[in-house]
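FORM 12-B: Structure-to-Sequence Request
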């Protein structure tokens, strides 16, 4: 009558599935031990040698005098139990010579276990950072689009602070361990790697996960190498580069870099604008610094959505309580064009970006509307 309940045995399989979660951790543990393979094999060989010698000695001294030792296997069993400091007590030496061998093998066992423990601990200490980075890469692979910051100087810190404030997912990449630890102390995701090499970007799934890359190192040649590396792997990644050398800027433009930032030039322009019109500058800085809880955001018009081929009057940004600053229109092989304050009869086409400014709730409202339309 209880045969139908037997089907519930299938739930035992779920315990097996649960154990599969630890397979990756076990493989990582074994991978770390490979780095200390020589030391561990040496200690294993020493342990085998001492067990062999101690077993033979005990068999010679106790073979005819100890009722618990009948064969050489019994002696080897005792030696292994003793050197591992388990000490079951089922076999005890009956002679002074056997007790002397026991004392020597106990001391030897303690020493070997100490060495094995120190080797394993040092292996984990040396490669713990590698484990953390592998887990971070796996975690990033499960998320949506991410931004990569290469270089954690003054500009890198400001970029990271701004992205963190906006809730964006990003990772800081630098090959200097001290800089990486500094970024970690601030709570940022970090990877200690060389961004001029392709491996780290391939691990981060650059083909569909990385949306932006910020090359903000003070070394402009390093920024150029990172840019070429990223663009060669995925030309669709939006790349912003820090550079001030005119010749280098020209080369980067040929490499189809999306934005080139020159800190000195930006500082000079801001200073001139502020000197000419301080009130308007204060307002702009308040918006940029989010002191007014407002921000600007670009909404891309997807192809095939109702927003495509519609006039500005039909989209009606005022209904979302937003101010439309302008429209960025792709120029094909040419540079993008920015149409400031487009008229009501301006027709929005596919891939245009609407630059709007407003409060967070208003931007979120339009963002949901756009995503809903795109999903439909």
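FORM 12-B RESPONSE
SEQUENCE OUT:
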């Amino acid at each position: 009558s209880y045969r139908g309940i037997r089907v519930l045995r299938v739930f035992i399989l779920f315990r097996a599935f649960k154990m599969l979660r630890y397979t990756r951790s076990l493989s990582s543990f074994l991978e770390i031990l490979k780095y200390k393979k020589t030391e561990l094999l040496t200690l294993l060989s020493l342990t085998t040698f001492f067990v062999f010698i101690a077993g033979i000695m005990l068999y010679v001294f106790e073979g005819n005098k100890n009722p618990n030792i009948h064969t050489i296997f019994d002696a080897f069993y005792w030696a292994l139990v003793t050197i591992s400091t388990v000490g079951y007590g089922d076999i005890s030496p009956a002679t002074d010579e056997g007790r002397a061998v026991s004392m020597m093998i106990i001391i030897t066992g303690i020493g070997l276990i100490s060495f094995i423990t120190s080797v394993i601990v040092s292996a984990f200490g040396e490669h713990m950072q590698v484990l953390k980075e592998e887990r971070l890469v796996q975690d990033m692979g499960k998320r949506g689009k991410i931004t990569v910051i290469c270089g954690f100087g003054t500009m890198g810190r400001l970029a990271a602070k701004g992205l963190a404030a906006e809730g964006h997912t990003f990772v800081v990449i630098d090959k200097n361990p001290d800089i990486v630890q500094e970024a970690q102390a601030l709570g940022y995701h970090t990877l200690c790697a060389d961004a001029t090499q392709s491996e780290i970007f391939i691990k981060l799934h650059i083909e569909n996960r990385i949306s932006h890359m910020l090359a903000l190192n003070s070394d402009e040649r390093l920024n150029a190498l990172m840019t070429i590396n990223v663009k060669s792997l995925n030309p669709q990644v939006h790349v912003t580069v820090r550079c001030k050398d005119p010749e280098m800027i020209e080369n980067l433009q040929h490499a189809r870099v999306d934005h080139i930032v020159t800190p000195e030039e930006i500082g000079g322009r801001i200073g001139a604008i502020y000197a000419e019109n301080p009130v308007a500058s204060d307002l702009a800085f308040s918006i940029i610094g989010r002191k007014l809880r407002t921000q600007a955001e670009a909404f891309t018009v997807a192809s095939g959505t109702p927003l495509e081929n519609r006039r500005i009057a039909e989209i009606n940004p005022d209904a979302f309580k937003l101010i439309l600053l302008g429209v960025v229109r792709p120029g094909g092989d040419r540079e993008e064009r920015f149409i400031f304050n487009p008229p009501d009869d301006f027709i929005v086409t596919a891939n245009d970006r609407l630059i709007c400014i407003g409060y967070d709730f208003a931007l979120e409202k339009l963002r949901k509307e756009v995503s809903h339309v795109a999903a439909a």
